[in-house]
């Protein structure tokens, strides 16, 4: 018969230690630096609001389709950035003594488990396409990381096919959410180019040859100066965003990660062992929606060691007997001291 409390079972997210934020009782997982995500949303929303307020009313009477296309692109940007932040990037949970998924294992007193440290740090190797990988042991998570996985210090998690910790959204980008991150920067690039083009078309589009062009541009800007401000804003930021999309497109067609590119992992004769035979297979492999590859279950029931009254072993019995004997001796000494003091006091009174 098991001797444990009824409330010993808890949800995994209640005992899991991570840098990520967990919301709605384990139903939502977001990044570790949410202020960066909010800042990115603000940078996207400001030109969006200006376009809706000052450009859309002017364009909808002449080119309604331009406004509709902008609305579609804008919605896709918000959708994919939200999915990227809220989706598990491929986190491999830590192995700690804070929880246990097997009820039988939790009954073993941790104090008397004998594990040879050499077993934990024994060399583990894996061979893939002629390459021999030495699986690295993560001291923080207490696991052997699979190939291409890495530990993110910001989120304090090991992530499958770790690409990078994005400084603009404050979350990790890995195997499970990379496709949504790629689509986010793609549609954001398309939106910026689209806004820049439509603003220039509005400024220079309705010029007539019989009037001075400079005066026509000044007249247009005087009616709607925000068109020039939006064009400049998108022109400046598009250098970074479009450049980032181009860089990740290069990584997709070569089947590399940002982490591997920066650390120059495959600067060897045999090149990248994960690269497919052609570009299309690389694209299919990298941008595939991987939903079944998931190790993190925040609402899975686990067992809390603190909630269990573990069975007493013979070693514990011996230790308890010694402790009890010491307590008895101390009590006897205290009683003798009190009696001696009372006797002395009584003698003094007499």
UniProtKB/TrEMBL annotation:
One of its GO terms (biological process) is protein targeting to membrane. The keyword tRNA processing does not apply. Residues 133-264 form the Palmitoyltransferase DHHC domain. Its EC number is 2.3.1.225. The DHHC domain is required for palmitoyltransferase activity. Belongs to the DHHC palmitoyltransferase family. This is Palmitoyltransferase.
């Amino acid at each position: 018969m098991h001797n444990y409390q009824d409330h010993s079972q808890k949800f995994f997210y209640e005992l899991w230690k991570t840098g990520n934020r967990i919301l709605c009782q384990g139903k939502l997982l977001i990044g570790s630096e949410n202020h960066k995500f909010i800042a990115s949303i603000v940078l996207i929303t400001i030109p969006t609001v200006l376009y809706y307020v000052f450009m859309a009313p002017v364009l909808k009477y002449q080119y309604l389709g331009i406004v509709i296309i902008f609305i579609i692109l804008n919605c896709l940007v918000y959708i994919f950035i939200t999915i990227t932040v809220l989706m598990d990037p491929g986190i491999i949970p830590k192995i700690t003594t804070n929880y246990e998924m097997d009820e039988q294992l939790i009954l073993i007193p941790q104090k008397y488990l004998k594990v040879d440290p050499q077993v934990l740090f024994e060399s583990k190797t894996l061979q893939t396409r002629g390459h021999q990988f030495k699986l690295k042991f993560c001291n923080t998570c207490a696991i052997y990381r699979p190939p291409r996985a890495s530990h993110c210090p910001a989120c304090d998690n090991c992530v499958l096919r770790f690409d990078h910790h994005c400084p603009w959204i404050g979350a990790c980008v890995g195997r499970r959410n990379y496709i949504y991150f790629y689509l986010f920067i793609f549609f954001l690039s398309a939106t910026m180019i689209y806004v820049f083009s439509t603003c220039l078309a509005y400024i220079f589009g309705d010029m007539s040859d019989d009037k001075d062009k400079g005066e026509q541009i000044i007249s247009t800007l005087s009616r709607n100066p925000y068109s020039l401000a939006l064009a400049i804003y998108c022109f400046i930021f598009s250098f970074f965003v479009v450049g980032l999309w181009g860089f990740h497109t290069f990584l997709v067609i070569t089947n590399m990660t940002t982490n591997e590119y920066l650390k120059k992992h495959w600067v060897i004769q045999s090149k990248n062992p994960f690269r497919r035979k052609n570009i299309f297979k690389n694209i299919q492999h990298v941008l595939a929606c991987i939903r079944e590859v998931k190790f993190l279950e925040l609402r899975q029931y686990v067992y809390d060691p603190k909630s269990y009254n573990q069975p007493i072993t013979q070693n514990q019995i011996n230790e308890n007997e010694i402790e009890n004997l010491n307590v008895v001796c101390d009590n006897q000494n205290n009683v003798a001291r009190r009696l001696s003091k009372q006797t002395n006091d009584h003698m003094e009174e007499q």
